[in-house]
Each structure stands twice: as structure tokens, then as C-alpha cells.
Amino acid sequence: QVQLQESGPGLVKPSETLSLTCTVSGGSIRSYYWSWIRQPPGKGLEWIGYVYYSGTTNYNPSLKSRVTISVDTSKNQFSLTLTSVTAADTAVYYCARDAAYTNDWGQGTLVTVSS
Amino acid sequence: EIVMTESPATLSVSPGERATLSCRASQSVSSNLAWYQQKPGQAPRLLIYGASTRATGIPVRFSGSGSGTEFTLTISSLQSEDFAVYYCQQYNKWPFTFGPGTKVEIK
Q1: Which residue of B has its CA nearest to A48?
Q2: R_g of chain A, CA atoms, integer Å
Q3: In terms of CB atoms within 10 Å, which end of chain A has fewer, N or C?
Q4: Cβ neighbours of residue B30 closer than 8 Å, sequence gap 6 or more
Q5: What gap in Å lies between CA B24 and CA B101, rounded to an integer?
Q6: Which of A2, A3, A20, A34 is nearest to A92 (CA)?
């Protein structure tokens, strides 16, 4: 079964850029869609966007102007970049396989936006 | 975007009893509806997709029904490990959206 692991800074300053990477193991990143989903503390889930292994992307319109999701097939990784962050971007960020519904999630990483 | 609502917000149930959770979509999502279970500190776990198909390894006590805008998740006999938050999610139209969740707690 594929395993996913998020990595990146746990603290980001307001107005700066949040960058996370998801490393996929136990399977190839090729031939699947790969997603980022977030959950503010104590709140519900928000689908940020997804990328196909070929590089095709789709972003949530609420974040589209600030989000980039990319894939590196040579490293079996995909990444999330979110610019101009505010406290509202504080959340647990999950990477996941597939777009639509997903049964393969990373453990999640808490990113706090604070000065 | 499609807004998902869930009811009740909290459901108090005794072990062994039946739990019925409801999910409503602001417009038709056909059968493109999934249910997840989430426990504290864990990622969500897929229970149901296609409104009624159990995911791999999900016990038969979990069942889903509905189509269009009205959906139900039923847990036939609650076990101790079933106390958690449950989310519905539509994947009929982008952006995919989740409901706010129903917390199933011990009565």
C-alpha cells in the first residue's frame, strides 16, 4: 500500500510563503492524481487542489491566486506552495492520493502562521 | 460551490445502538458522495464512496444510502471504536467540498 509523508516548516510568518512536500513510497507517483487537503484546528476539511503526475493541476477557486501544486516524478514527490499566508491559513495540511475521494492520506502536518 | 450540510451536529448513542447520520447537498451530486471517519489526531478514513459502496476493509455495520441531494450513513450497532467525527464529501463538481461533520459520542 502506498504511503505518504508530508514535510516542511511548522511555523511560517504572516505574508510569507508556505511550502510543503509530500513523499510517496511503496508505489509510483505515475498514473495517479495527488491532492492537498487542509483542516484548521477544530474545524472541517478543505480540498486545496490536485495535480496529475503529468503536471496538470486544478485549484480551489478560494485559493487559486495563491496556490501552486507541482510534481517531481524523479523524486516521487509532489509539493504545495501557498503565498501571502495569514493566520487563517493555520491548519493541518494533508497530502493524499487521488482526486474525487481518497483512501490514502499522509499523517498530516500542522503549519502555524504566526510572527 | 456545492455546500454540504450534516445533521445532527452531535449524536449521543449508547454502544450497540443504531446511529443514523444525514448529509444534504445544496444541489444534486448524483451518487458522487463519500463518507469519512476521523478520530482525534488522525487523518480521515474513507468509509463509503459512490454513496453506498464500502471501502476496502470497512465493516458491514457501516452502510450508506441516498442520491441527488439527500444521503444517509447508518452504523447498525455502534462499537466503542466508532465514536468519532464523520464527514460527508461530494466529488461531483469541483471544488470538492466536505460537510461540517457529525460527532458521534457516547451516551
Answers
A1: B95
A2: 13
A3: N
A4: B67, B68, B92
A5: 12
A6: A20
For residues A68-72, average pLDDT: 97
pLDDT per residue as tens digits for the range A5-60? 999 999 999 999 999 999 999 999 998 999 999 999 999 999 999 999 999 999 99
Contact A45 B87 (CB under 8 A): yes
Q: Kindly report whether the peptide bond that precedes residue B95 is cis, defined as omega within 30 degrees of 0.
A: yes
Answer yes or no: do A62 and B95 touch at CB < 8 A: yes
Q: Report percent pLDDT > 90 for chain B.
A: 99
Give the whole-angstrom CA distance, residue B60 versus residue A79: 37
- Smallest CA–CA distance, residue B65 to chain A, in Å, is 17
